[in-house]
Amino acid sequence: MAKARTIPGVRRAGMILVVDDDPQIREVVSFALRKEGFETTAASDGAEALAAFERVRPDALVLDILMPEMDGTEVCRALRARSRVPIVFLSSKDDELDRILGLELGGDDYVTKPFSPRELVARVKTVLRRAAPGPSVPTAPSGPTQPSRIRHGRLDLDLDRCVAGWDAHEVVLTATEFGLLRTLLAYPGKVYSREELMAGYADGAFVADRTVDSHIRRLRKKFALVGAGPIETVHGLGYKIGECR
């Protein structure tokens, strides 16, 4: 297991856990992140990754899917049982089903090998930005102070704690899911196209429509567990928040 490292003189932007069984990829990803001010620590397999997570409590993970013994999907399941830490999957597979599987498990984004280190860093920055409290893009007009909660009918978003609620039920969301819901709630009833929902998703990097669909589908499943269906599809146009009665 690698020790946490930074580049001297570069301001720390957060701690990233890099998990891959290929030492060269671990070093390439870690170096690219450190150049942008991140502190990094690395693990070569799933068991090491879980141990490192408990030890350093990273701000995000770059997680390889295909690893021996305990793969990235198992690591993601274990982490999602207790944490909303942003996860960017990294995989040599470029199959659509593999992409959707990774997101359905609770990943926030997905990059395939071979990859551009610059794009990967941009996606890490984006999932961290979505995980941070505050208004999403686009934002509703605000006064001198930003609201700490958004309420619409029975739907409630606590922006300070990044927690969603429906009546008395708390709905546990990933950073990406919370960010998408916050965007939809900026203007309840407004129909957002996939392009609008993808705005700021990866700092200009290409993101497939199906990626947004996968996150929306997962949001709906979580709200369905508490008997709610706040997100409506407007066929041919996109998604909106309904009346939430």
Describe the secondary-structure layout:
Elements: E1 14-19, H1 23-35, E2 38-43, H2 46-56, E3 60-64, H3 72-80, E4 87-91, H4 96-104, E5 109-112, H5 117-131, E6 149-152, E7 155-158, E8 163-166, E9 169-171, H6 175-186, H7 194-198, H8 209-224, E10 231-234, E11 238-241
Parallel strand pairs: 1-2, 1-3, 3-4, 4-5
Antiparallel strand pairs: 6-7, 7-8, 8-9, 10-11
Helix pairs in contact: 1-5, 2-3, 4-8, 5-6, 6-8
List keywords for this structure.
2 domains; 245 residues; globular; four-stranded antiparallel β-sheet; alpha/beta; Rossmann fold; Arc Repressor Mutant, subunit A; five-stranded parallel β-sheet
Description:
- This protein has 245 residues and is α/β, with parallel strands linked by helices.
- The protein has two domains: 14-131, Rossmann fold, CATH 3.40.50; 149-241, Orthogonal Bundle (Arc Repressor Mutant, subunit A).
- 37% of the residues lie in helices and 20% in strands.
- It contains eight helices and eleven strands.
- The chain has helices at residues 23-35, 46-56, 72-80, 96-104, 117-131, 175-186, 194-198, 209-224, and strands spanning 14-19, 38-43, 60-64, 87-91, 109-112, 149-152, 155-158, 163-166, 169-171, 231-234, 238-241.
- It has a five-stranded parallel sheet, with helices on both faces.
- A hairpin with a 2-residue loop joins strand 6 and strand 7.
- Mean pLDDT is 82; it is low at 134-145 and 200-206.
